[in-house]
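In practice, a research group might receive sequence data for several interacting partners and want a quick structural hypothesis before committing to experiments. The following worked case mirrors that situation: the sequences arrive first, and a predicted assembly follows.
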Amino acid sequence: MRVLDTAGFALQSLRRAPARSSLMLLAMGIGVAAVMVLTALGEGARRYVTGEFASLGTNLVIVIPGRSETTGASPALFAGETPRDLTVADAAALTRSALVSKVAPIMVGSSAASYGSRTREVPVIGSTAEMLAVRRWRLAAGGFLPRGDWSRGATLCVIGEKIRRELFGAAPAIGQWLRIGDWRFRVVGVLASEGRSIGVDVQELVVIPVASAEALFNSQALFRVLVEARSREVMPRVTQFVLDTLRERHQGEEDVTVITQDAVLATFDRIFRALTMTLGGIAAISLAVAGILIMNVMLVSVSQRTAEIGLLKALGADRRQIIALFLVEAVLLSILGAVVGLLVGAAGSWGIGRIYPALDVVTPGWAIAAAAAVAMATGLVFGILPARRAAQLDPIRALAG
Amino acid sequence: MIELQQISRVFQVGDEEVHALEGVNLTIGAGEYLSLMGPSGSGKSTLLNILGLLDRPSGGCYVLDGRDTTTLDEHEQAVVRGRKVGFVFQSFHLVPRLTAHENVELPMLLAGIAAAERRERTGAALAAMGLADRARHRPDQLSGGQRQRIAIARATIMRPAVLLADEPTGNLDSASGADVIAVLEKLSLEGLTLIVVTHDMQVGQRASRRLQMVDGRIVSDTSAEQR
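A structural hypothesis for the assembly, expressed as tokens:
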């Protein structure tokens, strides 16, 4: 029997039983569509998160005080307990390399800020003019901290949009004097609210020069130093330069931890990839259910068509041909179901993309291929039992009805 | 052309062994017209199934066209069934979802014959049966006589050597029954070996060689050359 004829015969038997066929198409379609939509969601979340990180600059080297190997706990928690602080002078030393384009020291604290009668507790960041470019912040109004000597603390500040709204309301903020702790800072700029930054809500920040922060918090200890390399290719060399320079400055002791944005990004990438795979795996269960449904319906079909099977045998069909006919029927159903599912899934992903524009909802190619392949495989696997049962029918008894 | 030697067939029914056929010897020449008669349970259907290779004998030897069929494997038997034997059934056994044309085409589909040749041969066969205008009809849109003629067209489309008819008129009124018998006899005159199993004496008497079966044995074998 020719391959095309086998397919034609199977297709015809599907076409002449529309209710049965469309129900099976539906089941397979739902399974495939579920795989597509769920993986698209996972992939969208992954892209969103990695995109957030990429917006911070992927050639960023982050210097954290404290050695990761010293204790079992996270070095950030023990930042204050390291024997030697990471200081502004350390950060300044890191600018002395042609491979480094920008360095931004960060000091973090919290203080009460008040304007007129309104007071609130605000997170305060002490940094330099470089911070704006390194963290890809944008300004809604005014300017950022002026460039110049890091050790000179001007009494200027840049505030987040929410701080501006809460403290100044409708009144103009630029040029006003904001009281932070015992000091007064003149507002020179407002950060745009859409500026994205992991872990820090830009809307609720007050940024002051790092030297002013040293005085305000009466501390020399930096929270982080952000070092931007000239390009991604020189990242390993920049990392080595940072470690060498700081070891030299800290009397030969390596008491900082250096992480790269790339490493963080890669970690998140892995986490979200695993999440996507999990979602896909859960959705694949519905594919298996669809496969079992196909087996069920094919078994019913075999028992309904015993006379036909007996006849085919009498007309010269051998076991292999009978198996081929029923198997092709199951696989055809699965393929058609997969096509339906891919269309529905694509429509669903598109719809979700419209509802959540922030998520870049695109089903990954591997998920589409896997869903289609699994659908076909289930058709094949779950088609074997009914096909074998059909082939083993005794033609005499089958013809007797 | 057909040679049966000491053919027996034993069925196991519960603890009991039922001997459907016991030591049947039969030789049938090419182009013969046989009728096989006998009461229910006499083994005539079993004999027909063995002749058509739908069933294997428990013992004995069946030579078809010079080949011992009992040594063939499942696939080879299917091929012989497809090419050398045609079946006509009491209840027609047309595939209900296929049109008359598609039903007649089915054996050629299984044999892997090209579409163009299939279409041509099917068309010719339907025309020979006077059913050219019914090609697109489904079985449920046809009368009993028409259905049986479609079944005969299907059974002969592969140009088999033997046509086995199991009560071909059993489900038909006498007029369409006569039609069907006329069609079968015409094929017989054209050289096809025809074996008809029937209860109907009138149908059975028309054959040139008449076999009578009782309890799994052939009890009479009369030739009527003078017909």
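Before designing any experiment, note the following. Residues 3-53+266-400 of chain A form one domain. Confidence is low (pLDDT under 50) at residues 69-73 of chain A.
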